[in-house]
């Protein structure tokens, strides 16, 4: 990239342009460890208009732009490995407006998820989209990947809480989409194209998010299970009479890494091969009694070998740590991750078939299973042996992807439930999308970003949209 471009960036953004090697490496990557970051510059806009000016200049100069939020993605969607300009939204982190009556909060794209959650709590309301990276992920990135997390079974995905967006398209146009309306039946809902669009059509700069009432007296129950099939037995039984706000699954191997990481104790004296974590609102004594009745029924049926129920908020947080601490505890092992999903009713068959394949193909690798079992989303993590180099490890894992994704396709599932497609999953998109769907996606990309400057190579292969 020429010095002329750096000079223009500096003239527009001043000290908010970074080109030192440490910054390029830091802002040019996400949580994937496969790609080597190699951006040319990092730019920190403060306003939608500054983003617009940058996008228009990128079109004139045929420059590639990569959006960067909290960089907690797991599919390479925020990786800049080919000299791109990284557009970091860290300085666009303000709550702009709040309407208590409508329960709407307008925020810039760089607002941290936990920041929005705390703002809602300070106003006696609730933002229910939650996940382990809430302390660092940003709203713009959440929406660009339609992040889900641990409360989807009750509260839905990120897109379910969006009432309006401000975006800068690949052409450099500013669009104000929906403006917080509950009803707006005037044709295509363009905001939905930018949610889960991974910044390939344009960049989200502001979002109007819905809030809801605070849940009352959340109680957490962790159950030790005799067999994986019992996970679905427990889910069906409890769901009949209790409105569950979360239902998570993890194997003993997964939990053992959390325990070894420290800061949390095992839930029972005796280990179980699998565990389920349930969360629900205790709005009355009747709900608590019903939960205990279902627990007793599960024990009598032989599904559950032990269980514990939180007696305080602190204990509930500790039990949640058994599940939410998994990703952090296995991170040092360079996990190869697959984020896959089917309808919940097909999960037992689905997991059994995939587990047979990966166990046969990776007898020397440790396999870690966990996930949001209540919505059919499973996380398959393959851990790198200490004595194996990263490139060889990833190469061996990729060879089996087609076998895993054949099962995903056969079961009517998806290769990416909540982490997006990015670079990592892009070659496998046809396992979840038909040729006709991909053709329409390319046409949409070309309409919004004709010069292919917005996060090129992510979601769709580079050059396919133009």
UniProtKB/TrEMBL annotation:
A Pfam family the protein falls into: FAD-oxidase_C
Cofactor: FAD
Residue intervals of the FAD-binding PCMH-type domain: 35-214
InterPro entries membership: FAD-bd_oxidored_4_C (IPR004113), FAD-bd_PCMH (IPR016166), FAD-bd_PCMH-like_sf (IPR036318), FAD-bd_PCMH_sub1 (IPR016167), FAD-bd_PCMH_sub2 (IPR016169), FAD-linked_Oxase-like_C (IPR016164), FAD-oxidored/transferase_4 (IPR051264), Oxid_FAD_bind_N (IPR006094)
Keywords of the record: FAD, Flavoprotein, Oxidoreductase
Keyword Flavoprotein among UniProt keywords: yes
Annotated coiled-coil segments of the chain: none
Family: Belongs to the FAD-binding oxidoreductase/transferase type 4 family.
Protein's name in the database: FAD-binding oxidoreductase
Species, as recorded: Allohahella marinimesophila
């Amino acid at each position: 990239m020429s010095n002329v471009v750096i000079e223009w960036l500096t003239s527009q953004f001043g000290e908010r342009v970074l080109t030192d090697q440490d910054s390029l490496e830091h802002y040019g990557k996400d949580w994937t460890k496969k790609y080597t970051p190699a951006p040319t510059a990092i730019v920190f806009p403060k306003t939608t208009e500054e983003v617009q000016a940058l996008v228009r200049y990128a079109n004139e100069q045929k420059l590639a732009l990569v959006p960067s939020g909290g960089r907690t993605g797991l599919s390479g969607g925020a990786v800049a490995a080919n000299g791109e300009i990284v557009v970091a939204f860290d300085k666009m982190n303000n709550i702009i407006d709040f309407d208590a009556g409508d329960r709407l909060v307008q925020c810039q794209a760089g607002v941290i998820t936990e920041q929005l959650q705390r703002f809602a709590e300070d106003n006696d309301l609730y933002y229910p989209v939650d996940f382990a990276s809430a302390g660092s992920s940003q709203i713009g990135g959440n929406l660009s990947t339609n992040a889900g997390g641990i409360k989807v079974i009750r509260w839905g995905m990120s897109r379910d809480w969006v009432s309006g967006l401000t975006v800068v398209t690949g052409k450099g146009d500013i669009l104000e989409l929906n403006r917080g309306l509950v009803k707006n039946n005037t044709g295509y809902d363009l905001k939905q194209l930018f949610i889960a669009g991974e910044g390939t059509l344009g960049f989200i700069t502001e979002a109007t998010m819905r809030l809801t009432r605070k849940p009352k007296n959340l109680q957490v129950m962790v159950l030790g299970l005799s067999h994986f099939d019992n996970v679905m037995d427990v889910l069906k039984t409890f769901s009949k009479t209790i409105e569950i706000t979360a239902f998570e699954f993890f194997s003993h191997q997964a939990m053992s890494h959390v325990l070894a990481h420290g800061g949390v104790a095992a839930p029972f004296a005796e280990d179980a091969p699998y565990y389920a974590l349930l969360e629900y609102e205790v709005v009355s004594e009747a709900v608590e009694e019903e939960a205990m009745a279902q627990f007793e029924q599960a024990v009598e049926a032989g599904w559950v070998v032990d269980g514990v129920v939180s007696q305080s908020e602190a204990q509930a947080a500790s039990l949640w740590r058994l599940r939410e601490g998994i990703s952090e505890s296995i991170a040092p092992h360079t996990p190869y991750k697959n984020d896959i999903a089917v309808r919940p009713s097909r999960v037992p068959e689905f997991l059994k078939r995939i587990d047979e394949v990966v166990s046969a193909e990776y007898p020397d690798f440790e396999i870690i299973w966990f996930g949001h079992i209540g919505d059919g989303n499973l996380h398959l993590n393959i851990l790198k042996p200490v004595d194996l180099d990263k490139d060889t490890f990833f190469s061996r894992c990729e060879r089996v992807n087609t076998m895993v994704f054949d099962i995903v396709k056969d079961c009517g599932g998806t290769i990416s439930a909540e982490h997006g497609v990015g670079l990592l999953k892009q070659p496998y998109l046809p396992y979840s999308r038909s040729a006709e769907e991909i053709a329409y996606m390319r046409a949409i990309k070309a309409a919004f970003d004709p010069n292919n400057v917005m996060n090129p190579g992510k979601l769709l292969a580079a050059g396919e949209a133009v």
